[in-house]
């Protein structure tokens, strides 16, 4: 007679894993294994651990349970307990390269470098897949670097790169090894190449700044640090680094800022306008969480004649096209000054102002923005009119623009590849417009009286300079079309690449490769495996490989700094993965410190801790390497880029390349929906 699952758990708990049932059939092991995987997905790692341990009481030589238990113990931050499981796994199957690789990671976590070296060597010898060989070589490189063997580390990272030539992490390791060997030119070259492979590999940019500072390239170091600081404007760590580097920067500081400089507006008087559509209030210069930066000073040039409107006095001034005016905030008396092209103050006010071109099709170019904490100091040209809303430390810039005009720029900015497949662009134009209308009905900035912001919190919207001709054509071809479900506008999201399946359950895999992972090991192997070339993400050949599979090597000291500051947990002890979605994305992360622990919920909070603005997705598995009892390095193996909800852009390109029309693409990603046209009122 079979034991009930509850009795099995209690038996294992009370008898200290020495309880054996009267009958131990294979069905019971399979049922318990399924429950263990469910507990893992739910974030109940202790329950998963107990279940796998119970399976091993039923049959001690169960290799699958041994491997899954080892992975669970690693996630729980208990490498000293995971190691015996990997030793056992390699004894049960001496030819299992994956188990040997994990054994190497566990030895590394315990700083037992000689044994780790032997385990990784065995894994390399046995590896039959490029992904397992790459992991073993990468682990070997990190091991030799930690053990001070820089020449051997460079060799191992080089072999990892030879196995996977798209790996930014292998190039990052080569850069570190070259830097530590004082081969600075090689280090800079490797780190730059790493950023070429994956522009979001923040660790390479950090190392590059350090190398520049080491060799006296202070201007380049300052530029890199400013870029890092812009991703974390609230982090005093980067502010201090920038301030320290600024002391050694040349007098050409303003010229060194990586900013767009635009001479005159592209949109001139008489340009063709799009058909009318609903007007939006878009908050500009917003950071990732949607908060707007205040502006203290800016210049502007209108493509047509314009008027300046005072909030209380009405229209007060007019100006001609292509004249540069200036507006600045006087903090000493909270006055906004308007200066004409001759630099003469022609109006002062404490009220809000508006800049309104007489020609609705003309653009307004905003130049020389000065903001205390603005994320983007470059010039930008905007369609529509501009509002200067009063703020305590300056003014907030708000763009009044139509939905269709906004969609051109938002579409251009969010579809980054050089794609000429019009149906993919048409589908994405509909998704972008639908998202805008959804946010109008479900505003994220109602307190600020905004419809949208210009950051990814709502939709990235950089202005006219980002616009692509093909994007404008896609908007015109789909004017007014949105996706509705049950008569309501859908929250139609999109993301760069899903890598297998979207969070909504839509598969991008071929029909014979759609089985979801059914165990912890299968999930981990999926994050590290080489994806099928038949994925829709890959069909077009235009998608950067890093969008689909990526590896990151994170410095734990930076993660700890963020955890101390924002979570108040003290010195960092462990990061423990929690609940996962059915597709594998991490939904919660436990942060354990000496002063307590906090659980992060949602992709945004997890990204802010691990790699602000640069974590491609939360679909990853992780190894933690320690120095003593404290984390030293987090090694992440990840899948996909973006939220993985809604339409997969890479998959849409794949479908278009096979001849699918934009309606069929939208039907694929938004089943049970319909296309509806919204007309301007």
Structure description:
- This protein is α+β, with helices and mostly antiparallel strands and 681 residues long.
- It has 24 helices and 24 strands.
- It has a seven-stranded mixed sheet. It has a six-stranded antiparallel sheet with strand order 7-6-5-2-9-10, with no helix packed on it.
- Helix 1 crosses helix 3 and helix 16 (403-414) crosses helix 17.
- Residues 1-24 have low confidence and may be disordered.
The largest sheet, given as strand count, sense and whether it forms a barrel, is: 7 strands, mixed
* Overall 3D shape: globular
Structure annotation, total helices: 24
Order of strands, main sheet, comes to 4-3-8-11-12-1-13
Radius of gyration: 28 Å
Structural category: alpha+beta
Counted beta strands? 24
Note the beta-strand portion. 15-25%
How would you state the average pLDDT, rounded?
Answer: 89
Instruction: Extract low-pLDDT stretches.
Output: 1-24
Helix content: 40-55%
Distance between the termini: 71 Å
Q: Brief description of this entry?
A:
With 681 residues, the protein is α+β, with helices and mostly antiparallel strands. The relative contact order is 0.09.
């Amino acid at each position: 007679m079979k034991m009930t699952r509850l009795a099995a758990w209690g038996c294992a708990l009370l008898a200290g894993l020495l309880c054996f049932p009267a009958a131990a059939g294979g069905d019971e092991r399979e049922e318990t294994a399924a429950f263990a995987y469910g507990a893992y997905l739910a974030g109940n790692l202790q329950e998963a651990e107990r279940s796998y341990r119970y399976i091993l009481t039923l049959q001690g030589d169960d290799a699958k349970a041994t491997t899954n238990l080892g992975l669970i113990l690693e996630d729980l931050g208990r490498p000293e307990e995971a190691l015996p499981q990997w030793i056992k796994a390699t004894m049960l199957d001496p030819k299992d390269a994956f188990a040997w690789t994990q054994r190497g990671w566990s030895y590394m976590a315990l700083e037992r470098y000689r044994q780790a070296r032997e385990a990784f060597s065995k894994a390399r010898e046995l590896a039959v897949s490029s992904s397992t060989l790459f992991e073993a070589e990468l682990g070997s490189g990190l091991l030799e670097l930690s053990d001070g063997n820089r020449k051997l580390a460079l060799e191992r990272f080089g072999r990892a790169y030879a196995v996977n030539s798209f790996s930014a992490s292998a190039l990052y390791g080569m850069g570190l090894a070259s830097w530590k060997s004082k081969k600075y030119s090689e280090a800079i070259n490797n780190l730059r190449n790493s950023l070429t492979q994956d522009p979001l590999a923040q660790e390479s940019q950090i190392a590059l700044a350090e190398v520049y500072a080491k060799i006296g390239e202070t201007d380049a170091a300052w530029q890199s640090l400013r870029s890092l600081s812009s991703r974390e404007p609230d982090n005093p760590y980067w502010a201090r680094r920038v301030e320290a580097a600024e002391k050694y920067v040349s007098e050409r500081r303003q010229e060194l800022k990586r900013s767009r400089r635009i001479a005159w507006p592209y949109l001139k008087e008489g340009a063709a306008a799009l058909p009318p559509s609903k007007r939006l209030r878009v908050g500009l210069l917003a950071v990732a969480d949607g908060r707007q930066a205040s502006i203290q000073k800016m210049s502007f040039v209108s493509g047509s004649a314009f008027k300046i409107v005072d909030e209380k006095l009405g229209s007060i001034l007019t100006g001609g096209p292509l004249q540069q005016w200036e507006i600045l905030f006087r903090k000493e008396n909270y006055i906004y000054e308007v200066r004409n092209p001759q630099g003469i103050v022609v109006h002062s006010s404490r009220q809000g102002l508006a800049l309104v071109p007489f020609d609705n099709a003309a653009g307004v170019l905003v130049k020389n923005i000065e903001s205390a904490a603005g994320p983007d100091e470059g010039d930008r040209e905007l369609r529509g009119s501009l509002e200067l809303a009063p703020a305590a430390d300056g003014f907030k810039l708000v763009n009044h623009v139509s939905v269709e005009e906004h969609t051109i720029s938002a579409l251009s900015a969010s579809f980054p590849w050089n794609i000429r497949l019009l149906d993919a662009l048409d589908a994405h134009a509909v998704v972008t417009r639908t998202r805008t209308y959804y946010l109008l009905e479900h505003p994220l900035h109602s307190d600020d009286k905004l419809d949208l912001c210009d950051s990814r919190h709502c939709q990235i919207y950089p202005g006219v300079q980002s616009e692509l001709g093909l994007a404008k054509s896609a908007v015109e071809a789909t004017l007014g079309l949105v996706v509705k479900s049950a008569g309501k506008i859908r929250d139609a999201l999109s993301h760069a690449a899903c890598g297998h399946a979207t969070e909504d359950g839509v598969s991008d895999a071929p029909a014979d490769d759609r089985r979801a992972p059914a165990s912890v090991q299968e999930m981990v192997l999926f994050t590290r495996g080489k994806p099928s070339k038949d994925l829709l993400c890959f069909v077009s050949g235009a998608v950067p490989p890093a969008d689909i599979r990526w590896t990151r090597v994170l410095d734990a000291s930076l993660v700890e700094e963020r955890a101390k500051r924002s979570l108040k947990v003290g010195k960092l002890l462990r990061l423990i993965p929690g609940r996962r979605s059915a597709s594998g994305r991490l939904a919660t992360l436990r942060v354990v410190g000496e002063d307590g622990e906090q659980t992060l919920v949602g992709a945004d909070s997890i990204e802010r801790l691990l790699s602000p603005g640069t974590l491609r997705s939360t679909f990853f598995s992780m190894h933690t390497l320690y120095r003593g009892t404290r984390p030293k390095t987090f090694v992440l193996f990840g899948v996909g880029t973006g939220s993985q909800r809604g339409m997969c852009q890479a998959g849409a390109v794949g479908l278009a390349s096979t001849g699918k029309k934009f309606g069929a693409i939208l039907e694929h990603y938004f089943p049970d929906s319909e296309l509806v046209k919204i007309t301007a009122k």
